[in-house]
Amino acid sequence: MTLQAVPNHQPDGRWTWESARANSRAVRVSPHAPSGLVTLSLWREDRCVGSLRLSPAEVAGLVGKLTTALADLRAPAASGNDGLEERMLALEERLAALEQDAG
Asked: Which of 2, 6, 39, 95 could form a disulfide with 46 if both were Cys (CB 3.0 to 4.6 A apart)?
């Protein structure tokens, strides 16, 4: 695999830097309209170390998997919410009572 330097001009690309490693790694998303593909490239500092060319259907599948992964991260946090659910329920009940009194 050949490493490529970051080009000076980056048309149409979007970057996401990994904050856990002091921005030394990144993912770049670049559309390629003529070919109908999207390129995901993996970067270490200023070098491209790998890439994928994905069809729109593959991108949609990846977005779905990322969304599911985010939801899975949220689920355990909800169980250790220090009574947040109970406080929210109590607040909703108070708001409902106020709305009923006002109406």
From this structure: 6
